[in-house]
Structures are given as structure tokens and as C-alpha cells.
């Protein structure tokens, strides 16, 4: 049985190709959705780009037929712009205000009522990224769904970068003695990824354990580098996952490192420490570029007073806090004098200003990457020049972008797309190390 899917504006602004996601069913776009898309076309961010794309796409189909009557889609199904079912009579007693959301619900409800009047059992489904729109729809007996085609994977099932394997103590001892372990000897059926970490634990419960990393040919487990026992620019790993992260950050053969984890797990601090070590001590890179999105990415920050540096300071303060810790500054102005004396070796920038640049021979840290869309993540990765190392980090459970969630954001997308490739490594930090209070708050609140 064919179905009718009525699309909310946020579905098209999140994924402009959404009209192709409903197989051979009918896709209906209410006229009010066109009005909302038109109001977003002038935005200079990702939402504006998608609004303009949807506008051009609809104009292409307009040339193939009358949109209000319906046109065929290439991959099956039909597309129609709905003009005739905008009556608000069924909702006006309960939803008094004629908001755009309520008008979209009214269109879907009137379509369903028309089918029922004709005696036709055609399912009408309202598709929206807005939870309250879905709730209100079902109050009126209208079927509603979230748009899930843009999701990469459920975050709870996403790649963590490591796995715990229980083995005999003899194998752990063998790993330490010969400095490797054959994957085949684990007797553990698993699809391994390059640079994936393995925590070996004694299956009989002793305290014996080891940490290893999958080799590029995925045939052996290799030990971590010796630098994990040392301080990295005054910072030492406090838990297993932080040891894994340092191993990735200091490996010059891995140009892309992705990090996920809650606030306080050490993502930013360890990345900055590794960057300073590589730039100041080893001179591997020319400088370090640290950026984070001014949410949403592309939003103009000109309303703040002062020069660009003064405008950026409130958004970049978490970066400066970590730098103050690493440089052990106590007095106001000390950090600024240190950074000025380093001749701009460290550049702290808003992600807004990265577009259009080519960035070679730099240690690049992108904080709060969970607020990036897939397209924005692609834009950043394609800016990376020869000899650079890119660190993408964030907490997919803490997203400020109105059209993103933990399953469809750019950080989750990059983690899943790159896990099969040897040029990247990933680790999910589990344990908070900011303070005992912060760790407890993250756990129970």
C-alpha cells in the first residue's frame, strides 16, 4: 500500500535530498514549507545553503510538470506541493495560534480526512525533526515520524576505537615478552579496524592486563609507544583511554584523529599538550591552529564589541583556559604575552574564518565538532594541506545545533566513515578527570 509523507521544513533544511528517501510513495510539501525555506535562503550558513539547494531542486522539477499536481521522482514515487488542504478548522479550537508548525499539521490532517471521506485507507505520515510537532500530530490521531535517513548510526552503537578482550594470563605475558601478539591467537572472531586498541585482561580475574594497538595489516597486536609513560608538555595520562589518545596524537603517521567523550574527559587539554610538544619541542609542524564553531557555524559575531580577537574571546575562552593550565600562568595578561612571544605559533580562530583556506604543515584542533553538519565536516577535512594533522573532538550527546542530534552530526559521520582507513584513528574517552565533583555531576545529573 502506498503512503503519503508530508515533510516538515526542518527535514529539507537538514537533508535537501530527503525527497528521495521515501521509495515509491508520495512526498507532499505544504506551501507553508516553501515560505519557510524562502525565508532561509539568505542565510550564509549551512541552513541557507540547503534552503537554496532545495529551491533549485524544486525549480528543476517544476520544469518537468506542475508541482501542485505531482511530478515523478527519478528513483520512484511522486513529489507534490500541496496548496488545497490548508484549512485550519479542525485545529483552531485546540491549537489557537496559526503557527507554521500548526499549519503543516493541518495540511497532513486534512489530507488524511479527505482519504477517509472517500473510503480510501491511505496512510498519511508527517515527517519532522521537531519532537513537539510529532507529539501534537499524534494528539490529533495523525501518524508522525522522525526523519532517520540522515542518521549515520546510533551513538550508543558507534565506534569507540577500542575493545576489551579476556585472554589467558600466558598470552598477556607473551605479549610483554615478545612485544607483539598474533591476532589469530586470540581465538576471538571480530572485524578489526586499523589502529583499533585492545585491552587484554586475564579471563580468570587476576590483575594482569595490557594495552595494545592493531597493526595496519590487522595481523598483530602491538604495544603502545614508550612516551605513554612520560609527561606530554607536563600532562600525563590518567586512565586507559587517555593513554590510547596520546598514542594517536603523537603518531605522525596518522593525519586524522577523532575524539568523542563527555565534558572533562581531557579531550582539549591532551590535544593542546600534544600540539605544543610537536611544535615547540619536535618542530614537526609550523604552528598550531585551534578553532571551534561559533554555533551555528557561519553565524556572524559582529554584534560583539571590539576587534576580531576581542569578539572571539568569549567563544574561545575554554581554549585559553587550557592554555593557561599548560603554561602555568597565574596573572592576567601572562598568557597573552607568552602567545605574542611565540610569534603566532599558536593561532586561535573561529571556524567561520577557516573556509576557503588551505592549511599545510599545521597541527589543527577543531573543538566542539559535534556541532558540525556532514557538509561542514567535509569542508574542513578538504582544507587540510600536505603535512598537517587534524584533530576533531566533541561530545555528540551535547549538541547546540538546532537540526543535529547525536546520530547525524558531522563528528559521528567522520568517525564512522574513516574507521576503515589507516590514515585515521579514533578513541572515545569514558572517564572524567576534571575533578571528582565534575565526574560525579556528569554521572548522576
Automatic annotation (TrEMBL):
Nucleotide-binding in keyword set: yes
Chain ranges of the PIN domain: 3-135
Keyword annotations of the record: ATP-binding, Nucleotide-binding
Domain of life: Bacteria
Family: In the N-terminal section; belongs to the PINc/VapC protein family.
PANTHER family, A to Z: PIN DOMAIN-CONTAINING PROTEIN, PROTEIN PHOH
Protein name, entry field: PhoH-like ATPase
Biological source species: Caldalkalibacillus horti
The organism's taxonomic lineage, starting at the top: Bacteria, Bacillati, Bacillota, Bacilli, Bacillales
Amino acid at each position: 500500500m502506498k503512503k503519503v509523507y508530508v515533510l516538515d521544513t526542518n527535514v529539507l533544511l537538514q537533508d535537501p535530498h530527503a525527497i528521495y528517501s521515501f521509495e515509491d510513495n508520495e512526498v507532499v510539501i505544504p506551501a507553508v514549507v516553501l515560505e519557510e525555506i524562502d525565508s532561509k535562503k539568505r542565510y550564509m550558513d549551512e541552513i541557507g545553503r540547503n534552503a537554496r539547494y532545495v529551491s533549485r531542486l524544486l525549480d528543476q522539477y517544476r520544469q518537468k510538470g506542475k508541482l501542485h499536481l505531482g511530478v515523478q521522482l527519478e528513483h520512484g514515487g511522486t513529489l507534490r506541493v500541496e496548496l488545497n488542504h490548508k484549512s485550519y478548522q479542525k485545529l483552531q479550537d485546540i491549537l489557537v495560534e496559526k503557527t507554521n508548525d500548526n499549519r503543516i499539521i493541518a495540511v497532513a490532517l486534512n489530507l488524511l480526512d479527505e482519504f477517509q471521506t472517500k473510503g480510501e485507507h491511505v496512510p498519511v505520515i508527517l515527517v519532522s525533526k521537531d519532537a513537539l510537532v510529532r507529539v501534537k500530530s499524534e494528539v490529533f490521531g495523525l501518524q508522525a515520524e522522525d526523519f532517520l535517513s540522515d542518521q549515520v548510526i546510533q551513538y550508543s552503537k558507534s565506534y569507540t576505537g577500542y575493545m576489551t578482550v579476556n585472554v589467558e594470563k600466558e598470552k598477556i605475558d607473551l605479549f610483554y615478552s615478545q612485544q607483539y601478539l598474533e591476532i589469530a591467537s586470540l581465538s576471538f572472531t571480530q572485524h578489526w579496524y586499523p589502529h583499533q586498541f585492545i585491552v587484554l585482561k586475564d579471563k580468570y580475574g587476576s590483575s594482569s592486563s595490557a594495552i595494545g594497538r592493531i597493526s595496519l595489516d590487522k595481523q598483530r597486536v602491538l604495544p603502545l609507544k614508550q612516551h605513554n609513560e612520560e609527561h606530554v608538555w607536563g600532562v600525563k595520562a590518567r586512565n586507559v583511554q587517555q593513554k590510547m589518545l596520546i598514542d594517536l596524537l603523537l603518531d605522525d603517521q596518522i593525519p586524522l584523529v577523532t575524539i568523542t567523550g563527555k565534558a572533562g574527559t581531557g579531550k582539549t587539554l591532551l590535544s593542546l599538550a600534544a600540539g605544543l610538544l610537536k611544535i615547540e619541542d619536535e618542530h614537526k609542524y609550523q604552528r598550531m591552529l585551534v578553532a571551534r564553531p561559533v554555533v551555528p557555524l557561519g553565524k556572524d559575531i559582529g554584534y560583539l564589541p571590539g576587534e576580531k580577537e576581542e569578539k572571539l574571546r568569549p567563544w574561545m575562552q575554554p581554549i585559553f583556559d587550557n592554555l593557561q593550565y599548560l603554561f602555568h600562568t597565574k596573572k592576567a595578561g601572562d598568557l597573552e604575552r607568552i602567545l605574542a612571544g611565540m610569534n603566532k605559533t599558536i593561532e586561535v580562530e573561529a571556524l567561520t574564518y577557516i573556509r576557503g583556506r588551505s592549511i599545510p604543515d599545521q597541527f589543527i584542533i577543531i573543538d566542539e565538532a559535534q556541532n558540525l553538519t556532514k557538509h561542514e565536516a567535509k569542508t574542513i577535512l578538504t582544507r587540510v594541506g600536505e603535512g598537517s594533522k587534524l584533530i576533531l573532538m566533541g561530545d555528540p550527546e551535547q549538541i547546540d545545533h538546532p537540526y543535529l542530534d547525536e546520530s547525524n552530526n558531522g563528528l559521528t559521520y567522520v568517525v564512522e566513515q574513516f574507521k576503515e582507513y589507516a590514515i585515521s584513528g579514533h578513541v572515545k574517552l569514558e572517564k572524567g578527570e576534571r575533578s571528582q565533583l565534575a565526574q560525579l555531576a556528569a554521572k548522576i545529573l
